[in-house]
Specification:
By secondary structure, this protein is α+β, with helices and mostly antiparallel strands. The chain folds into three domains: about 5-225, 2-Layer Sandwich (Heat Shock Protein 90), CATH 3.30.565.10; about 230-365, Ribosomal Protein S5, domain 2, CATH 3.30.230.80; about 500-540 and about 560-630, Heat shock protein 90, C-terminal domain (Four Helix Bundle (Hemerythrin (Met), subunit A)). The chain is about 40% helix and about 20% strand. It has 22 helices and 22 strands. It has a nine-stranded mixed sheet with strand order 1-6-5-4-7-3-2-8-9, with helices on one face. It is elongated and about 105 Å long. InterPro entries: HATPase_C_sf, HATPase_dom, Heat_shock_protein_90_CS, HSP90_C, Hsp90_fam, Hsp90_N, Ribosomal_Su5_D2-typ_SF. One of its GO terms (cellular component) is cytoplasm. Belongs to the heat shock protein 90 family.
């Protein structure tokens, strides 16, 4: 087969521009990334050999070798892992397919605004650490032979626009060799002592031996301890080793927010080393909701994509779980229905929630930062995991109308006003928008705290939960707002004044109902409005307005439900309209009030974030009203 010339995927070209521009403040991490990829290749060969033992029969033990060549100005990193064929080379080294190009491009644009530091996180999060090679090399050659294949392949690129792939007879017997032709200013990475220091700093935890083949010496020298970090006593592991193990397993560049290292022995024996990131992974809200904790059996890698290992709402976890009680040749189908894995799932979930509860109690400020990052995911468990619902509710934190910080439901209950018999909440697209909602005015007047919920998941879990700490959850945008039983600061004469309605109000109400009968379900006086003239609410038992809007946006719902228009009897506009209806029964008056009725409805729609059914008519009515007011 002749040499094949291919172009990089557009996203790869953009990434390489950033990498080649030396935006990394710490270039030496290229070696960590290549070693990490080599280790993964060895893990995958171990797994493949469980069902195809011939893949490793008679071969040398799995290992990684680093070979600096000062004369050639090149650095080689070799492994005898699973290897790659033609299609693997094109897919893995020419495209970014693992996490989706759309998300990658969005992240790349954000990275450009962060002086390049975001690019470091992107490379790790998308598992494309191979491209960090071009920070130090102006040409990269990859020679690989996939285990079990007779033909080897050679991939080559200068990182500027494309790459070539051709058959190779000099490929390793099995595995991959990456040759970096170093830039003149990067020759420091040919120094054996420099390489040794990098490996010990970043890759000592790698379970595969890493050998350094020094010039002039016949036998290579092992640089790392090559023992599974999770099997070692905690007292022997430094914070730096934990951090680098997290970087390796998560392909991440941030520091972990929290770690859990445990060993369980008894009827069920397993070990785990789990991390909670400090930064959200790029695919955190991907529809597939994949978890990325690696499953090992007796220190042999099995899979990093097993939905039975942990619940989806803990998918932000990174790390490994190593079980002694599963067969090495377990199939994916068996994993989904394994009682052993089910017990591990329950036990590990409890352990994670225990750790979060302790953190929330002892370090509330740090826990708030965790909730800011991952709270929207953890709340998915409120409707998925009934067994742990109470614990998750205790862990949940919310924004509310009382201050700008996070608060717990227990704290909200402790602040409830006398006579309050429910938790009140409002859902929407952002906390800032919700704070301005007219539906909150009556609650604010009585100093009643309302939870501000801006995560899409909030629409679903509140319905599933229904009641918290013995009190119902009640939306302020649904049904009538009966605040009369809640103690407030109003004086008696002010309360009487509020209950009074202007002359002609009942007639105006009847007129609005007749005029808007085809557009709304009802028109009624509002107890929740203080300074706004109107608002829209859902009838008791109807779907919440924000939920309906979300479902329509995602093509899950076609119809638009009729809502209730509430009007503020004490608002100047409503008072003037009521007086107009009471004093003037001419046709001109009726037409003017009718136009005002539609303007008020459109105003309520705008306040609710709804689109107007006829923007042109709204603009005309508004212009006419302004003209009459200025006349």
């Amino acid at each position: 087969m002749s040499e094949e010339k291919l172009a990089f995927q557009a996203e790869v070209s953009r990434l390489l521009e950033i990498v080649a521009g030396a935006l990394y403040s710490n270039k030496e991490i290229f070696l960590r990334e290549l070693i990490s990829n080599a280790s993964d290749a060895c893990d995958r060969l171990r797994y493949a050999a469980l069902t195809q033992p011939e893949l490793t029969a008679g071969s040398d033990p799995l290992a990684i070798e680093i070979h600096p060549d000062s004369a050639a100005g090149s650095l080689k990193i070799s492994d005898n892992g699973i290897g790659m064929n033609h299609d693997d080379l094109v897919a893995n080294l020419g495209t970014i397919a693992r996490s989706g190009t759309a998300a990658f491009m969005a992240g790349l644009e954000q990275a450009k605004k962060e002086n390049g530091q975001g690019a470091v996180n992107l490379i790790g999060q998308f598992g494309v650490g191979f491209y960090s090679s071009f920070m130090v090399a102006d040409r990269v050659v990859v020679e690989s032979r996939k285990a079990g294949d007779a033909q080897g392949w050679r991939w080559e690129s200068d990182g500027k626009g494309g790459f070539t792939v051709a058959e190779s007879d000099v490929s390793p017997e099995r595995g991959t060799t990456i040759t970096l032709h170093l830039k003149d200013e990067e020759k420091e990475y040919l120094d054996p002592l420099r390489l040794e220091r990098i490996v010990r700093a970043y890759s000592d935890h790698i379970a595969v031996p890493i050998h350094l083949r020094e010039p002039g010496k016949e036998e290579p020298r092992q640089l790392n301890s090559a023992s599974a970090l999770w099997t070692r006593p905690k007292s022997e592991i430094t914070d730096d080793q934990y951090r680098e193990f997290y970087h390796h397993t998560a392909h991440a560049f941030d520091d972990p927010w929290m770690k859990l290292h445990f060993q369980v022995e008894g009827l069920l024996s397993y070990a785990g080393l789990l991390f909670i990131p400090s930064q959200p992974p790029m695919d955190l809200f991907h529809p597939e909701r994949r978890q990325h904790v690696k499953l090992y059996v007796k220190r042999v890698f099995i899979t990093d994509d097993n939905e039975a290992l942990l619940p989806p709402y803990l998918r932000f976890l990174r790390g490994i779980i190593d079980c002694e009680d599963l067969p090495l040749n377990i199939s994916r189908e068996m994993l989904q229905h394994s009682p052993v894995l089910s017990k591990i799932r329950g036990s590990v979930t409890k352990r994670v929630l225990d750790a979060l509860e302790e953190k929330a109690e002892k370090e509330p400020d740090s826990y708030s930062s965790f909730w800011e990052t991952f709270g929207g995911v953890l709340k998915e468990g409120l409707y998925e995991d009934h067994a742990n619902r109470e614990r998750l509710l205790n862990l949940a934190r919310f924004r509310s109308t009382q201050g700008d910080g996070w608060t717990s439901l227990a704290e909200v209950k402790a602040r409830m006003k006398e006579g309050q018999k429910a938790f009140y909440f409002i859902t929407g697209d952002s906390v800032e928008t919700l704070r301005q909602s007219p539906q909150l005015e009556g609650f604010a007047a009585k100093d009643v705290e309302v939870l501000l919920m801006a995560d899409p998941v909030d629409e679903f879990w509140v319905t599933a939960v229904g009641e918290v700490l013995g009190l119902p959850l009640k939306s302020v945008t649904r049904g009538g707002a009966d605040l009369s039983g809640i103690a407030g600061e109003e004086k008696e004469n002010e309360a009487d004044e509020k209950s009074a309605t202007p002359e002609g109000f009942d007639a105006l109400l009847a007129f609005l109902k007749l005029t808007l009968k085809d557009a709304v379900k009802d028109v009624r006086a509002s107890e929740r409005l203080e300074s706004s003239a109107v608002c829209l609410v859902a009838d008791e038992g109807d779907m919440d307005m924000h939920l309906e809007r979300l479902l329509r946006q995602h093509k899950q719902l076609d119809q638009v439900s009729k809502r209730i228009l509430e009007i503020n009897a004490k608002h100047p506009v409503i008072e003037r309209l009521a007086a107009r209806v009471a004093s003037d029964s001419g046709e001109g008056a009726g037409a003017a009030v009718e136009e005002a009725a539609w303007l008020l409805l459109d105003q309520a729609r705008i306040l609710e974030g709804e689109s107007l059914p006829d923007p042109a008519k709204f603009a005309r009515r508004l212009s006419d009203a302004l003209a009459r007011g200025l006349a």
